[in-house]
Amino acid sequence: MLILEAQNLQKTYRSRRQVFTAVADVSLKLAAGEVLAFLGPNGAGKTTTIKMIAGLILPDSGWVMVAGRNPHQDVRALRAIGAVLEGNRNLYWRLTPIENLEYFGVLRGLSRRVAQQHSRDLIERFELGDKRQTLVQNLSRGMQQKLAIAVALMHDPQLLLLDEPTLGLDVEATESVKRLIREIAAEGRAILLTTHQLDIAEELSNRVAVINQGEIVVEEPTAELIRQFSDSAYLIQLEQPLDTLRASKITALGATVELQQITIRDPEILYSALEILRPLPIVTMGRQQANLTDIFLSFVRKP
Amino acid sequence: MLSLFLAEFKRSFVQLRRYSSELIGGVVGTTIIFYGLFLSTQYIAGPGFQFGTRLDSIIVGYVLWALMLFIMGDIAGGLQQESRTGTLEQLFLSPYSASTVFLLRAIASLILNLTINLGILLLIMALTGSRLAFPPTLLPPLLAVLLGAYGIAFAMGALALTLKQVQQVLSVFQFGLIFLFTVPVESWTGSARFLGWLLPMAPGAGLLRGVMAQGAALDWGILAVALLNGAVYFLAGVALFGWAERRMKRLGKLGGY
Lengths: 303, 257
Ligand SMILES: Nc1ncnc2c1ncn2[C@@H]1O[C@H](COP(=O)(O)OP(=O)(O)O)[C@@H](O)[C@H]1O
Ligand SMILES: [Mg+2]
Hints:
The complex is a heterodimer of chains A (303) and B (257).
Chain A (H helix, E strand, L loop, with lengths): L1 E14 L2 E14 L3 E5 L6 H9 L6 E6 L14 E4 L12 H11 L4 H14 L15 H13 L5 E5 L7 H16 L3 E6 L2 H7 L2 E6 L2 E7 H10 L2 E5 L5 H10 L2 E3 L2 E4 L5 H8 L4 E6 L4 H9 L3
Parallel strand pairs in A: 3-7, 3-8, 5-6, 6-7
Antiparallel strand pairs in A: 1-2, 1-4, 8-9, 10-12, 10-13, 11-12
Chain B lengths: L1 H17 L1 H26 L7 H33 L2 H4 L6 H31 L10 H25 L3 H16 L7 H9 L3 H12 L6 H32 L6
Helix pairs in contact in B: 1-2, 1-5, 2-5, 3-5, 3-6, 3-7, 3-9, 6-9, 6-10, 9-10
The complex binds adenosine-5'-diphosphate (ADP) and magnesium ion.
Magnesium ion binds next to α1 of chain A.
């Protein structure tokens, strides 16, 4: 089931004499249970896009549908959206976790009784039980982030928007936030998370959309994207730089030679190339394992 | 709606109780400033000087002014603080409209604010020996003043939403407000009298001074003017706030970019 659909979103910020297009053209689709990682360098337009989806920033053109409703026109769409926005922790610092959960639950349209029930459940599930009476300002950053996610889930939204959910967290907190995100997706919620940390995207997402300068440059299932890039190339490392005769023969086949390193993009020519190389000593030979970092850089660095 | 009101009440009460030292500081500070003014005026004017009902009028104006500051701090100051801590945008994700949330919030803390300001009033009365009356007829003009106060607070909230930094504007504005609560619009005549009716909160404050300090009966004609004045300022403030919200959604600065 399609939970989120955004079509041709565009946003240009205009301030005194300055005109800046933060989002040029972004379209996204997200189904229940899916995690889409929205990946891009700083200033690429990730936060602006997320806020347009949440109804907090009005797009100049394009539209958003969440659970079949437009959040800019129909407040009922907001019941389907939970959001943890970037930077701050979206919580009242002078209240305890339980007070925050109950307050935001009611704010999001729950009755008091249901809000109390949900906050008890979430406290337990997010392992915040022994901190239930601690003021938020005295919680660790990791705890605050977990609580912020719990708050965003109080009204049981179908879509969860997470803007840089692991930014500034230590390793342990990052792990536990990652585990929670997986669990939440497994419940059948759609999750859109932005990050500039590639490992996070690689581990958590079903699909990756890379955004650069306000435009989506590639959107693929995460595994697919990694495979596409991994499949294509074999890397052969020789002990010595290749002599010119062999180098020209190999280049003629369609491979690339750089001193003692040969890259073969077309698997068909692998054995012909090996024939030419015989009997030179080979140090290593293998398929190039791409990770998201390489892929990301190859898209973002394109002129 | 009732659930939200109760949740807002609990939220402001808990925060107030937890930080009661700030609250006590506010009450004591407000009282001491007035008492200082009182003593220095007495010193300058000499020991034979009698304030009479003038003192009582001034006290009513001063306490109304303090109440206005609390309300403004709640809405405009609260907005600014929430944009800093990041809760502001969450409020705009609520299915209740932002003006509903802020209005319920302000009404919820009104009960607390009224109690606090009654405390200030009683303290000042005890210190200065003033005798004010509390007839039930003070309620309608108080309502008129409150409507105006909320209108102004929402307008300042709109400013806070737009500028994010309103501390300086607020503190200059505060001293402009003291004028509104002390101008004796009730004694103005001719076209000045008409002008006095247009000033925010002034007609209601004038009635309150009459009822509480001079023991006057309520003038129903002026009360109608005061209520109309309050309603107009209230609606204008809320409209301005809605406009600021839409503008910030367009500029992408709702939460403080
Ligand atoms: N309200 C705003 N007014 C003007 N420029 C803005 C505003 N918000 C963001 N920007 C600019 O737009 C660009 C994209 O911002 P953002 O969406 O926050 O990027 P990201 O989240 O990918 O880092 C940045 O260069 C930022 O400086
Ligand atoms: Mg961002």
